[in-house]
């Protein structure tokens, strides 16, 4: 970083990514700053600047040496797990300043010696006490996956045998009774697939194969509403509560709902012409499967399908993962949020994979808008209906 760039940053004052320090504070206090940055989006700490006035008070050569050593010690001994950072010295008007570059951490959540977790909160920081926030930090570090959560009280005795047999035949060309004849129990099959543990379902297994999924987690489903107008406050023409059953059954029920609320248009001008949906069926196939595969299962909410007179909306819980953008997914880039679920669902639902689903939807019907709603923590797809 050159002196002009640094001067511009200092003039902007403190923010969620910039902290100013005249000298290195107490070790515990500085450790908490490193923790907050590492648990958030990273940032820089500039040492040698008054945080109240922005006036420069450069460090001497010996202070620079001593401060750099202290920073390394704090990062390795006062933060758990240790954080890795870089420092540089920049001179502005004969004032030597230390810039500490702190990256967003890969092993969240970072804690102090007492186990306290901090996050940036604007230019300040705050303690984390919410279990949901801790789970989010673990998820961001890929140390916790929703689909691997054990569903207490569930039992593999509630398995939908037909769903399991169909899956096993498609994947292995064998049914469950053939596995049993080979000495492999249903419990072993599910545990080997990382879908169950000690006779209880993990979340992925519950979604895929439990006939009582809705009893434990009714929110992990799809709700459908058809509205006579263009706003949700208009009269409902058709609506369904969250569908019960396995993820495959939920998908089929949703397709049936859309089918009965789509206008049908003739393919040709002939008297006996076949009809087709006003919006190609395959568009909904791709978008619904994507919603079920890629939604955030840490969020206790249903997927919503809202059919208005001028558009159809599919709203999925969870914004895009940090490294992904709408342009990325339009270009076929994908980040897998639910690996276990995906590895099994490709044998159950019409999932094409390889990032082709969204591109295929646009090729079939370009009048689609996607919105990554960060504040609401949702991903929304809007499919405009044609004027017929």
What secondary-structure arrangement, pairings included, does this model have?
Blueprint: H1 3-11, E1 18-21, H2 27-39, E2 43-47, H3 61-77, E3 85-92, E4 95-102, E5 118-121, E6 124-127, H4 131-140, H5 161-172, H6 176-181, H7 186-192, E7 196-197, E8 200-201, H8 203-209, H9 213-216, E9 222-227, E10 236-240, H10 247-261, E11 264-266, E12 275-277, H11 281-294, E13 303-307, E14 311-317, H12 326-330, H13 339-345, H14 356-364, E15 368-373, E16 378-384
Parallel strand pairs: 1-2, 9-13
Antiparallel strand pairs: 2-4, 3-4, 5-6, 7-8, 9-10, 11-12, 13-14, 14-16, 15-16
Helix pairs in contact: 2-3, 10-11, 11-14
Key features?
388 residues; 35% helix
Structural class: alpha+beta
SSE order in H/E notation? Answer: HEHEHEEEEHHHHEEHHEEHEEHEEHHHEE
Largest sheet: 6 strands, mixed
Which geometry do the CA atoms define? globular
Helix content: 25-40%
**Assembly classification:** single chain
The overall strand count is 16
- Which stretches are low in confidence, meaning pLDDT under 50 for 5 or more residues running? none
Q: Number of helix segments?
A: 14
Terminal CA distance: 59 Å
If strands are numbered along the chain, what order do they take across the biggest sheet? 10-9-13-14-16-15
**How much strand content do the residues show?**
15-25%
Average pLDDT: 90
Radius of gyration: 27 Å
Description:
It is a single chain. This protein has 14 helices and 16 strands. It has a six-stranded mixed sheet, with helices on one face. With 388 residues, the protein is α+β, with helices and mostly antiparallel strands. Helix 2 links the parallel strand 1 (18-21) and strand 2. The mean pLDDT is 90. The protein has helices spanning 3-11, 27-39, 61-77, 131-140, 161-172, 176-181, 186-192, 203-209, 213-216, 247-261, 281-294, 326-330, 339-345, 356-364; strands at residues 18-21, 43-47, 85-92, 95-102, 118-121, 124-127, 196-197, 200-201, 222-227, 236-240, 264-266, 275-277, 303-307, 311-317, 368-373, 378-384. The longest helix has 17 residues, at 61-77.
């Amino acid at each position: 970083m050159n002196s002009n760039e640094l001067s511009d940053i200092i003039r902007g004052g403190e923010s969620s990514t910039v902290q100013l320090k005249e000298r290195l504070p107490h070790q515990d206090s500085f450790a908490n700053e490193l923790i907050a940055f590492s648990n958030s989006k990273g940032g820089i700490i500039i040492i040698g600047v008054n945080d109240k006035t922005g006036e420069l008070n450069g460090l001497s050569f010996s202070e620079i040496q001593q401060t750099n050593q202290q920073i390394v010690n704090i990062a390795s001994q006062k933060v758990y797990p240790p954080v890795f950072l870089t420092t540089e010295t920049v001179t502005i008007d004969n004032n030597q300043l230390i810039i500490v570059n702190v990256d967003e951490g890969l092993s969240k959540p970072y804690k102090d010696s007492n186990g306290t977790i901090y996050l940036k909160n604007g230019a300040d920081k705050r303690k984390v006490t919410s279990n949901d926030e801790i789970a989010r930090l673990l998820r961001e570090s890929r140390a916790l996956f929703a689909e691997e959560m054990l569903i207490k009280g569930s039992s593999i005795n509630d398995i939908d045998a037909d769903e399991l047999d169909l899956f096993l035949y498609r994947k292995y060309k064998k049914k469950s009774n053939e596995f049993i004849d080979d000495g492999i129990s249903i419990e072993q099959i599910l545990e080997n697939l990382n879908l169950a543990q000690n006779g209880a379902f993990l979340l992925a297994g519950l979604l895929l194969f439990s006939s009582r999924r809705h009893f434990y987690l009714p929110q992990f489903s799809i709700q459908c509403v058809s509205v006579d107008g263009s706003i949700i406050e208009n009269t409902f023409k058709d609506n369904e509560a969250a569908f019960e059953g396995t993820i495959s059954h939920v998908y089929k029920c949703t397709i049936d709902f859309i089918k009965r609320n789509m206008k049908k248009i003739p393919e040709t001008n002939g008297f006996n012409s076949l009809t087709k949906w006003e919006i190609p069926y395959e568009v909904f196939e791709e978008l619904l499967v994507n919603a079920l595969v890629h939604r955030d299962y840490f969020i206790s909410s249903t997927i919503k399908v809202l059919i208005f007179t001028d558009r159809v909306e599919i709203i999925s819980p969870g914004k895009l993962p940090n490294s992904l953008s709408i342009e990325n997914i339009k270009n076929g880039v994908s980040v897998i949020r639910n690996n276990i679920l995906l590895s099994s669902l490709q044998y159950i639902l019409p999932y094409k994979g390889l990032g082709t689903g969204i591109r295929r939807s646009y090729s079939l019907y370009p009048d689609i808008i996607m919105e990554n709603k960060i504040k609401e923590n949702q991903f929304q797809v809007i499919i405009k209906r044609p004027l017929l």
